[in-house]
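Notes to self after the Tuesday call (sharing in case useful).
The group wants a holo model before anyone commits to mutagenesis around the pocket. I volunteered. Ligand is adenosine-5'-triphosphate. Logging inputs and output together so the record is complete.
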Amino acid sequence: MISREEINKVVSKYDKKKLTIATICSHSALQIFHGAKMEGFRTLGICTPDRRELYESYPLASPDSLLEVENYKEVLEPEFQEKLLKQNVIMVPHGSFVEYVGASNIHEKFSVPMFGNRESLGWESSRKKVREWIKKSSVKVPREFRHPSEIETVCIVKFSGAKGGRGFFLTSSEKDYEKKMKMKLDEGVITKTESENATIQEFINGVRYYPHYFYSPLMKGRDGNGRIEMLSIDRRMESNVEEIYRVMAAGTLQELNINPSYVVTGNAPITIRESLLPEVLNIGKRVRESSVSLFGGIVGPYCVEMVCTPELELYAFEISARIVAGTNLYPLGSFLSAYMFKEPMSTGRRIGREINIGIKEKKLDLLIY
Ligand code: ATP
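Result:
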């Protein structure tokens, strides 16, 4: 395990005037580079050859330099890490970074300083741990059924890993569950191990919100102890469930043999009625508070994925403990960040801003691990 002391030692040797913000070219990388550049940082992208063109196409968001890899796991190789350390790199983790490199690999082998608390990545990549975290935050969670025979309502069946909804299906009985699970296995969409470890969760019908929070240990919140900012909100566009109604004119989904799919393909902006905002903000606060006793506390961006029911109750089903791709909607800020910052403030830029404050106040150790 890479210790906090080890990382602090590395950062203490860094030339603070020549820090480089780096990330893997995927997910929210353009936004991260764009924001870091706005904050005056040098930027570095790690990309596979097929991604080079895209990341060289947007002058205001293209990284100052690109390091090519064939496979993202190469970032774990000591020689590669050495290259990053030489450039005083602070790595910004995002969903694809965690998925491609692996939370435990990052924890055990990646000795490059990262923005935020790397302990949070191990928590967010385990469904069981996320559930424990949500419950500890006194936020409502959908019911879960240990065995398909217990299914007594519409359920969503989920598989592990941040794979953006791949293979998920809806079911409402044990018989249907067995049939659909066999189909997924036969089609090779999921592995046997994934099927054995599937989560059967009550499907909450309502509107989904994905609020983007940011915890700053350096700013003073209302209680004087760090500040929780709600910078923006999105809603995911998942294929094909988002537009499935368009084929329903031709018959029922069953007749047409169409299964809803929850694979994420994009994001759309959404506002929340103002009377619900206090609770959404409070959920962000409680999730941050409980993270302190669970693993030392989340730092920087995070998101609580939730559904609002017709009774206006909010259920949380997932936490992302790092920047989420829905923030890509707001490179110049959002309808919420505009009330907090005089200048355009994306989550990517907010990360750069926090690092700048950390340098100025000599408190980088509170932001990096
Ligand atoms: P990611 O890591 O990319 O967030 P994931 O594999 O962890 O994805 P979830 O975020 O839990 O999966 O779920 C994917 C999608 O499935 C959600 O965005 C949502 O649309 C739907 N979903 C998940 N759980 C529920 C639920 N309990 N009720 C209603 N919809 C749900």
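Two things stood out.
Residues 127-140+205-236+263-366 form a domain with the D-amino Acid Aminotransferase; Chain A, domain 1 fold (CATH 3.30.470.20).
Residues 142, 156, 158, 162-165, 168, 201, 203-204, 208, 236, 238, 262, 264, 305, 307, 317-318 surround adenosine-5'-triphosphate (CB under 6 Å).
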